[in-house]
Amino acid sequence: MTARLRPTWVPRLARSYRRPGGPWDVPTLDALISAHGGEVVDGDTRLSASQADALVATVAGGLKERGVRHGDAVAWQMPNSLAAAVLTRACWRIGAVAAPVLHSFGSADVGGGRGAFAPPQVVDLNPHPK
After folding, report:
1. 54-58, 67-71, 105-109: lowest mean pLDDT where?
2. Among residues 39, 55, 116, which one has the least CA distance to residue 88?
3. pTM score > 0.85 for this model?
């Protein structure tokens, strides 16, 4: 028999937060981004909301194929860019934790960061930094 733990104390204001229209009744991050245009711009590259969503879906599917699941951490090291924005949204879409590592960190800092969140995947989209 499996026991299910249930909360025995619920904050007095929790009901108001959970009610329809309450503070926790919000769309997903993808929906919020898309509702505000959703266009992604990186230098000369412009993606419409639908192009960005298609790219995010492709990357999210690739992460899932590599075994990344809800709650897993995905780390990468690259400058802020279109690729970083797409990867962040792909993580959100599958419920993974986006764990970008500052691109200017040295190998000791990167190694320490990787140990802190023990990601199942390290995504290297820029194998030859300048």
Report:
1. 105-109
2. 55
3. no
